[in-house]
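By way of example, we now present a protein record of this kind:
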Amino acid sequence: GRRQRARRQEAMDKVHLWAGKTFGANVVRDGFRGADAIYAFNTAALEILTAARRRGLFTVMEQTIVPRSVEEILLAEAQSRYAGWEPERLKNANAAILAQREREEWAQADMIVCGSEFVREGIRQCGGPVERCVVVPYGVDSHFAPTARENAGRTLRILTVGQVGLRKGAGCALEVAKAMHGTAEFRWV
């Protein structure tokens, strides 16, 4: 409900802050029921990790995306490059609060799982504890090899899945599509 009603980024960030804090408080209130370790996700982990550390549990936090302060810089650069694609990002106090929340979560985590080297590098850029970061890539096993198919005469098909916006690279995808001059079929879901 709240997330669907939030239209601007600042409102969405406010919802994420509320959800993270509420979820964390509910988990802590319910207790850890004999757990030896806790695994939680960025911006929804602070209360959980803090309580778990007080109880001597091993704490793991997954940083699912580049840290928020780095994301804000990257999005500002994208908005400059692709002017008019999205409403201008205004000064957003909630973004700063989310970025601080992530830093506090890192301080409470014995281990930080990053889905890519890019995410770990973002933590480094923020002065975060990269020595506690472990990269566990999402996606296909690097040893995966698709079977060869006959592609002669077929149009290359490119599928992108995600919200159409600067954060997901829509401007870049459009540039690639234009550069390929109709030699590929692009779809965005």
Remarks:
- Residues 59 and 109 are 5 Å apart (CA to CA).
